[in-house]
Amino acid sequence: MNTKMFKSFLFEAQNSFFRVLLRLRFPIKRKPKVSFLGNEYSGYWFPDCLINRRGTIWGVGLGKDSSFELILTQKGYKFFGFEPEKSCFKESLRQFADTDAVLYQYGLWDKTGEFKYSGENISIVNIFNSNKLSEEEIEIKSLWEVAKDLNLDSLVNPRILKMNIEGAEREILFKLTKYPLNFDVIIFQAEFLFHIGFIYFQKKIKAFFELNLILSKLLSAKWELVYFSRHQIILSRIELK
């Protein structure tokens, strides 16, 4: 086994350990049937009972491909997409050209401003401790401001919030525990834990306890953990069969 393979093995073993601890701490009581929508790059597991409900989905972080959201759009969902990086936004415009999707060239976070993203990941959160900063600034808006501007409460439910924003999920989730918004389902990648490398073990421990606190607070606020696989977590405050 070469050095790269050994590091990959340690990384996956460490993540598996934390996943086991989370499953023990937060057992899933009701497990709705789920299907994988999209492709290997941008696919997500999604509850079967919601696929044809024709609700609303907010895709926060689109990257180079949004096959997951595209499938739901084709199923009748109203789609609002948020992507701050220029090349990814242009690709999203191309991908959704024949739909009624509404796309915005800014990202969502817990605050508003312009930031330089770090490293190769399109994120304002430097979870990899990269010394490289892009010269390009990305525009970020507060999820709470945008929810008010777009009148979130008036949108067709179920209202789905999907986040894949390279670690910036952490701040949004923490703020949602204090200032909830009228979403029915939250789908997120827990990258602020699972993407931290094994050499930053202390930071990973801190992120693990932060995710524990986030889940505890949301569950006490009548959210329910309904799915957990690798990095993806689904929370719902409506009954999923």
Task: Describe the structure in your own words.
The mean pLDDT is 89. Helix 5 packs parallel to helix 7 (201-220). This protein has a 7-stranded mixed β-sheet, sandwiched between helices. A 3-stranded mixed β-sheet has the order 6-8-7. The chain has 241 residues and is α/β, with parallel strands linked by helices. The chain has a single domain (3-26, 37-230), classed as Rossmann fold (3-Layer(aba) Sandwich), CATH 3.40.50. It contains 7 helices and 12 strands.
Task: List the SSEs and their pairings.
Elements: H1 3-25, E1 34-37, E2 44-47, E3 56-60, H2 67-74, E4 78-82, H3 86-95, E5 102-104, E6 107-109, E7 113-118, E8 133-142, H4 143-149, E9 159-163, H5 169-178, E10 185-189, H6 191-194, H7 201-220, E11 224-229, E12 232-236
Parallel strand pairs: 3-4, 3-9, 4-5, 6-8, 9-10
Antiparallel strand pairs: 1-2, 7-8, 10-12, 11-12
Helix pairs in contact: 5-7
Short description:
The protein has about 240 residues and is an alpha/beta fold. The protein has helices at about 5-25, 65-75, 85-95, 145-150, 170-180, 190-195, 200-220, and strands at about 35, 45, 55-60, 80, 100-105, 105-110, 115-120, 135-140, 160-165, 185-190, 225-230, 230-235.
